[in-house]
Backbone:
């Protein structure tokens, strides 16, 4: 059974950036995304039954890194992204390409021209 990895990339919100820049950032503040990756759960629900699906929310689980053997574990990686996620989404795509794993993205914006090399 092929396995699909759906990734919700991490990002630094303007709120987090402001806290860090003012020196107010402490561990008592919430770290990560305040929203569950509902788009990914929808995609998972619509994926054919003969595919196994795993959701990786980087805000909850940590970053997808080179230490993750994507080629061994996944037939396809898909990344969801808003404009604030784009840089991290491209990093994830490059990591997938380096490991020879097909990668796709779905976003609410048109990808910049230079991203077409990452997401052909």
Residues:
């Amino acid at each position: 059974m092929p396995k699909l990895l759906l990734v919700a990339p991490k990002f630094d919100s303007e709120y987090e950036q402001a806290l860090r820049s003012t020196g107010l950032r402490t561990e008592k503040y919430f770290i990560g995304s305040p929203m569950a990756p509902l788009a990914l759960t929808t995609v998972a629900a619509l994926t054919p039954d003969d595919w196994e699906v795993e959701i990786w929310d980087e805000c909850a689980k940590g970053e997808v890194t080179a230490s993750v053997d994507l080629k061994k574990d996944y037939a396809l990686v898909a990344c969801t992204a808003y404009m604030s996620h784009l840089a991290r989404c491209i990093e994830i795509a490059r990591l997938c390409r380096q490991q020879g794993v097909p990668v796709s993205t779905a976003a609410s914006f048109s990808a910049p021209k230079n991203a077409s090399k990452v997401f052909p």
Q: What stands out?
A: The chain has a mean pLDDT of 79. Residues 86-98 form the longest helix (13 residues). The first strand starts at residue 3 and ends at 8.
